[in-house]
């Protein structure tokens, strides 16, 4: 019987946007840096990006693919409030499709040992997990962390009072992801309260002994594993033998269990004073776990996070009010929550990405913890909440959140970017032309990205605007190139290098003849070379359904126009096209 692959389906799942890989334009007036270095490890190249996050993720892909160590996102939960004008099925399908599109690019951005952490509530958590299983592979699911976001019940709850969120954790490659252990807390160390009689200060003033310990279990189960299978089959185990206590009492492990050590190991531990038999020396043995031997190792993170450990919604709201008391952000996350995630999933210097920046908590925490960060936000609160918050972090004026626990005193900075406008627009006659807002350098960078080249203008060779290898380059010009100019260019490039020439037009030779005459040149015409590549002019792929395009209504059929009028308009359009009006240049090509 053949196995069928089970997957989640929804309306419009097969549709995927043809995203335009836009360039990023820095706004120097909004970029912000500390006036001096606080430490040698200060980071100044963090990025705060204003624009649609799907387009921003696409814009980052070429430079950051395979480099992001930790991704934290707090997407809209699709609770229905933002989708009131749609029926539930369509609302749910739109949300799943938009999340899938983002997750696919996020996965490409992640390092091979990187991880993704997504906060979500019960409304979509289970569906989102199945989508993540498809994108990342079910084998790369790490955990579902349950975070207690509220410490008290809601009196007006209709059914049960919602008190938790989920944090879905995925690795790009689970076999390579190594979650870091958390530092031990004072509460965790409280159980280490026993001390040996020979511990203390010697005559030479030095401390002798191994310090405090607690009695750990000296047995293990015989119900599972290889040892359990052997015992079930033979009824014999090397880990079952009588132990005589100091009081002379002979003891055996409880039914279904065995000693954790074979006899020879037990005898060695006994000589090392690591076995404890209770105060009177007649109890079953326990193993001494010394704090000094495990203190530096930390403890593995558990999957239930209590508000007392990582904060709650109320904590986060108080943190955000410090930066904007007049208009606090609606659903922030506490700094301690993000801090724990970054502690588990990254180390100082790693790149952290948050493409749903919200109130900017991820960037603020990453900055204080010495991580490089990238955040994306489309809403106005990037200027009213996020940027002011980050400026205070840089200046060392943010004393809340985790500042005290990490000893934050300011430093570093960030660059503020916005997405460039769409490269292709329509002129007043409806013809696709290069956006007149682009200058020559921006056009060269945009076409380099579209063609898969790294934009890096040479200071030596005027025709080297970017490269894809050590010998393959790109040159972008809005000029119409003649055969003589192409010949001179070919001679300059030489036979051991290759050059992609993007120009408005070329004269005196056909494209077929050009490849024969100049084998080291590849000629492409602008904008024709990119017209079919992307959805041009689409600026908003946000998860807010209010921003989605409204379906066009069918217009009533019009009466046929007179041939003379139609011909007149067609002639005018053709003339305008040939004149190249409405942009840097039009379709005046051979």
TrEMBL record:
Residues 68-381 form the DNA methylase N-4/N-6 domain. Residues 553-590 are annotated as: Disordered. Keywords: Methyltransferase, S-adenosyl-L-methionine, Transferase. It catalyses: a 2'-deoxyadenosine in DNA + S-adenosyl-L-methionine = an N(6)-methyl-2'-deoxyadenosine in DNA + S-adenosyl-L-homocysteine + H(+). Residues 580-590 have a biased composition (Gly residues). InterPro entries: DNA_methylase_N4/N6 (IPR002941), DNA_methylase_N6_adenine_CS (IPR002052), N4/N6-MTase_EcoPI_Mod-like (IPR002295), SAM-dependent_MTases_sf (IPR029063). One of its GO terms (biological process) is methylation. Pfam families: N6_N4_Mtase (PF01555). Transmembrane segments: none annotated. One of its GO terms (molecular function) is methyltransferase activity. Its EC number is 2.1.1.72. It comes from the Bacteria. Belongs to the N(4)/N(6)-methyltransferase family. This is site-specific DNA-methyltransferase (adenine-specific).
């Amino acid at each position: 019987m053949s196995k069928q692959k089970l997957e989640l389906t929804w309306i419009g799942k097969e549709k995927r946007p043809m995203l335009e890989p836009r360039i990023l334009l820095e706004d120097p007036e909004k970029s912000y840096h500390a006036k001096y270095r606080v430490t040698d490890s200060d980071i100044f190249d963090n990025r705060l990006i204003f624009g649609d996050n799907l387009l921003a993720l696409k814009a980052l892909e070429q430079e950051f693919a395979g480099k992001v160590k930790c991704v934290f996102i707090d997407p809209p939960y699709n609770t229905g409030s933002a989708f009131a004008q749609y029926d539930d099925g369509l609302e749910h399908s739109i949300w799943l499709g938009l999340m899938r599109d983002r997750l696919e690019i996020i996965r490409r951005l992640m390092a091979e040992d990187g991880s993704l952490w997504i906060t979500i509530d019960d409304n979509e958590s289970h569906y989102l997990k199945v989508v993540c299983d498809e994108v990342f592979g079910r084998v790369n699911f790490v955990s579902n962390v349950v975070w207690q976001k509220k410490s008290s019940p809601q009196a007006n709850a209709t059914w049960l009072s919602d008190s938790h969120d989920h944090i879905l954790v995925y690795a790009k490659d689970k076999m390579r992801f190594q979650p870091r252990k958390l530092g031990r807390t004072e509460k965790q160390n409280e159980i280490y309260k026993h001390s040996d009689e020979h511990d203390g200060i010697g005559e030479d003033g030095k401390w002798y002994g191994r310090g405090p310990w607690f009695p750990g279990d000296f047995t293990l189960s015989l119900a599972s594993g290889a040892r359990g299978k052997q015992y079930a089959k033979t009824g014999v185990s090397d880990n079952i033998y009588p132990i005589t206590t100091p009081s002379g009492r002979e003891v055996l492990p409880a039914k279904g269990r065995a000693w954790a050590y074979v006899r020879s190991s037990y005898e060695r531990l006994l000589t090392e004073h690591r076995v404890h038999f209770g105060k009177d020396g007649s109890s079953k043995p326990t193993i001494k776990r010394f704090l000094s031997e495990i203190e530096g190792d930390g403890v593995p993170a558990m999957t239930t996070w209590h508000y007392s450990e990582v904060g709650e919604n109320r904590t986060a709201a108080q943190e955000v009010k410090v930066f904007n008391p007049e208009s606090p952000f609606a659903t922030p996350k506490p700094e301690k929550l993000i801090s724990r995630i970054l502690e588990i999933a990254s180390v100082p210097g790693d790149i952290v990405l948050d493409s749903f920046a919200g109130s900017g908590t991820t960037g603020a925490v990453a900055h204080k913890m010495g991580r490089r960060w990238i955040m994306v936000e489309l809403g106005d609160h990037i200027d009213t909440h996020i940027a002011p918050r980050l400026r205070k972090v840089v200046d060392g004026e943010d004393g809340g959140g985790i500042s005290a626990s990490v000893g934050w005193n300011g430093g570093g900075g960030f660059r503020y970017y916005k997405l460039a406008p769409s490269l292709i627009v329509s002129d007043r006659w409806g013809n696709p032309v290069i956006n007149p807002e682009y200058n020559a350098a921006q056009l060269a960078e945009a076409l380099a990205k579209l063609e898969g080249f790294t934009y890096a203008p040479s200071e030596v060779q005027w025709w080297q605007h970017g490269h894809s290898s050590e010998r393959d380059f790109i040159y972008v010009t809005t000029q119409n190139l003649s055969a003589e100019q192409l010949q001179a260019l070919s001679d300059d490039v030489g036979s051991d290098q290759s050059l992609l020439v993007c120009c408005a037009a070329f004269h005196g030779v056909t494209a077929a003849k050009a490849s024969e005459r100049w084998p080291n040149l590849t000629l492409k015409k602008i904008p024709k070379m990119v017209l079919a590549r992307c959805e041009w002019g689409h600026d908003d792929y946000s998860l807010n359904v209010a921003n989605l395009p409204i379906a066009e209504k069918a217009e009533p059929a019009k009466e046929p126009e007179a041939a003379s009028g139609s011909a007149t308009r067609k002639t005018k359009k053709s003339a305008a096209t040939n004149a190249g009006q409405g942009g840097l240049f039009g379709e005046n090509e051979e």
